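Example record used in the benchmark description.
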Amino acid sequence: MDLTRDVVETLIKAKDLAKNKKPTQQQADGKLLEFREQQIESLGKFASYASLLQPFRSWDVSQNYIAGIPEDFAAHSRLEELHLSENLLADLAGLNGNMHLRVLNLSNNQLRRIEGLDNLPQLRVLVASPHQNLAANHLARLEGLDLPLLEELDLSHNDIERLENMDRLVSLKKLCLNRNKLADLDYLLLLGTKRLQALEACYNRLPLSYLDQLLELLAELQSLRQVSFAGNELALNKYYRLKLCSLIHLSHLDGILIKPYARSELKVPMCHPAAARSRRDRPTGAQDEPRVPRTSQRRRALEEQSAADAR
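Model output (structure tokens):
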């Protein structure tokens, strides 16, 4: 089914009747228009029915067969939330330039790259991960993330091996990277955000030997409160919880509250950024883990690598 003005009018009337029986809060407030599971194959000419959507702030067209975004969508849409999960999108052409969109859900499509989102000035939340363990997108590389106001980014269940091209995400508060192929998170040193509060990177490829480097990295990110690394090899390290709980700015580890009495029983001192760096000044024989470069050296190496990639 292709959307036309007549089809949209019919669907809105049908939804009005349905929501009177058991409305959600958003439906009752008149904010959400839901066209889920309507066998929609095309959004048609958006301009022809855009005026019908003006009373709504959120449009949910998930679980359909939509393969593309209309070229005139950005010019005519006044929507603040757009849910396109479980469709057939392979690219995002048509979204670029939307001046109102704040939340965008692209879960369970056929995306291999993110592009065409570099001119969404109001975007705050971007989701490109699966729900209910369904097939995910297949993002392997990060690009097209010139989104300085973005606060929440979920890229879980993809094929990402390397963090890159995220330096414009200066407002990011929550970053979800679960079930990718990451062997390190060093790029976060270059991210530049002072606001990151939650970081999830469960079930990646972080090795046992990365624990001390991770500790130094997290000590630098003082705004962090909640972190999760369960399912990685490094979480099997016998010092994993001991060392990460020593970071006094963290409140939760792997979804579990770090209680004050747990910290009081630690056999190591509370870890501040300076303390994390000074641990590297101890004699070689006094530490169990291999020596690694200091955070400043790692940051410099990353900056040089990024500059080389740009060339």
